[in-house]
Amino acid sequence: MRRSQNGLTLAELLTTCALLAVLLGLALPAVSRWIGRQQLQGALDDVAAALSLARKTAISAQRPVWVTASEQPDQSWRIRVSYLRNHSDCLPERDVRCLSGGEHAGTRLRLNGSPGELQFSPLHGLPYDADGRLLKGLEWRLERDGCQPAELRLLPTGLIHAAEAACP
Hints:
minor pseudopilin epsh fold; 5-stranded antiparallel beta sheet; 4-stranded antiparallel beta sheet; 9 strands
């Protein structure tokens, strides 16, 4: 009497592994684009949220709130939201919000000639430049390799319009 044995043959195992390798090779570029898009969108959402927080804080606290954005030479960036104007460092216990490119790997912030320092007024949360003039608008761009640049616009009313990130 023969007993049947359960299991896979070596040929079946190698065929399954080869099929999985081909499927993984096809899926990897799509997953890579998805991860890049998510990282760029996360940075865009965080920058928009920081600007929105600055506006809402100025209105609710009834005092000016400063936003300082800077591009660093090493392709990193930093945004500081604070009641204080002239501070280059970011201290979470003193500032309302600190945000940096280190939290969003591979993203770059471009100010596109727009001011890197602005103030939200307690009166309706309107944005002003460092000289106290009402801003007519502001455009910042977030970039990531392999993705299309994502635009973020601050309107003269203080509202923020952020585009969707796209990585074709």
